[in-house]
Amino acid sequence: MPAPTYIEHLMVWVQSNIDNEAVFPSRIGVPFPKSFPSMIRQVFKRMYRVYAHIYCHHYPVVRELGLEAHLNTSFKHYVLFIDEHNLASGKDFWGPLGDLVESMLRSD
């Protein structure tokens, strides 16, 4: 599947889960389902693929457009959130961006 198609499908899937009251209850007092932690891990794992694709295939264009700092800041927030909430399933989670992630975690 081409990357733009994957990303579009992913964003629709994420939004449909966020909009699903059975998955993301919005009312006070309504408990989250037992499957919530594993579903959130899956969301973040799939979103990671988008960052990995951008860094591995489009980074020169990002730099040319002067967007490097924005991408790095966004990704660092993503990494720190995952680290804070233990959403990564080990070092293998980070794949080709492992060195970048390690440097971001050390610099925080």
TrEMBL record:
PANTHER family xref list: MPS ONE BINDER KINASE ACTIVATOR-LIKE MOB
UniProt: Zn(2+) binding residues: 53, 58
Keyword set includes Nucleus: no
Iron recorded as keyword: no
Keywords attached to this entry: Metal-binding, Zinc
Domain of life according to the entry: Eukaryota
Name of the protein in its database record: Mitotic exit network component
Organism from which the protein derives: Pseudogymnoascus destructans
